[in-house]
Amino acid sequence: xxxxxxxxxxxxxxxxxxxxxxxxxxxxxxxxxxxxxxxxxxxxxxxxxxxxxxxxxxxxxxxxxxxxxxxxxxxxxxxxxxxxxxxxxxxxxxxxxxxxxxxxxxxxxxxxxxxxxxxxxxxxxxxxxxxxxxxxxxxxxxxxxxxxxxxxxxxxxxxxxxxxxxxxxxxxxxxxxxxxxxxxxxxxxxxxxxxxxxxxxxxxxxxxxxxxxxxxxxxxxxxxxxxxxxxxxxxxxxxxxxxxxxxxxxxxxxxxxxxxxxxxxxxxxxxxxxxxxxxxxxxxxxxxxxxxxxxxxxxxxxxxxxxxxxxxxxxxxxxxxxxxxxxxxxxxxxxxxxxxxxxxxxxxxxxxxxxxxxxxxxxxxxxxxxxxxxxxxxxxxxxxxxxxxxxxxxxxxxxxxxxxxxxxxxxxxxxxxxxxxxxxxxxxxxxxxxxxxxxxxxxxxxxxxxxxxxxxxxxxxxx
Length: 463
Known about the structure:
The protein has helices at 3-7, 29-53, 86-106, 113-134, 158-174, 177-195, 222-238, 243-258, 295-315, 323-344, 371-386, 392-410, 442-455; strands at residues 156-157, 199-200, 292-293, 345-346, 350-351, 355-356, 367-368, 421-422. The protein has 463 residues and is mainly α. A two-stranded parallel ribbon has the order 1-2. It has a two-stranded antiparallel ribbon with strand order 3-6. Strands 4-5 form a two-stranded antiparallel sheet. The radius of gyration is 21 Å and the shape is globular.
């Protein structure tokens, strides 16, 4: 089955072929922009074409196997129509809202795309709101699951975080006044839950190399990192007066507790971001004596923090309380990219999911797709925020990462969306990083939108 046929069974999809070759940033910025926009367009158009197949389904449908091209919607299993993942719907709703604004500015890929995206967004929003009400104010990893992962009704979930972001972003522009009010309260309450340590990860793990739940007493930075996405939305959409201080709080916590500075952990390289800490705030050693870190999460944090800073500098004035801190933190964020990228980047062209920060041993032969777009965002935004010409490091690594994504994840896919995971040889493998559904323009689309925005304009002027 061809990539075009597999996307929408029984219907041909028009897809422009782009010969990527070896992209050189300085010589051909337009080529990089064209490639990234094609990736963005392909995802959004596939979402709409899947919707046209089953217009009554009402959810975002990316129930495809990108390796085989199989349409799993009617199959019996974790990719079928009855497995509705809140992470996909919440992330996808935020992606829809953000792409709507972006396409309004740069032009739409088809005449009816805007109307169809708004219609799908409304459907997803209504279904999530209905399910949340039936769940007593929360959402869980499986959207139709009504069982609370904790006994405390006041505890929020990672699904709440993704869905509050999506509902707030979409309803801010396209919802009723009541939907805007409720969605805003939802995202504010979710941020407060992070601050009060009342947000849990309700993710279900599908592979040992991925999330398996916390069976040990160790603390990560995922909630604060992903909370930055909520902070940035509040800053971008309404210039919320409290959001910058919350964002600073999240970033400072990660920088002060999880980054190896001043040789606090002598056996670990300076600047490495350690995800898991023990109860005393020291690096967490697993049962085999390893300090396993996730370089993709480290780079995702840098990109999301840089995104928050960039949005602050665009929307807030110099008189704001957090202005000096926002400018000062740019150098720190920029300094963290090189050690974490070099730690995790494989010579094959991907970022390993786990690596021992001490021995550099790699326990799992898996490299998920999402790390590369998040890394591209981190590079683009930190280079953008430094003001002036890109560094040689940023130029070379941006090129290396976009080439790796296209060659190792996009080209091998049987569909217009990248395969989810490859192994150390560069071969696609059937390993699910987060959900069985493919990415609805969240990691790939939202990250590449930031990259496109940077590559198409100059640096921020602080003067």
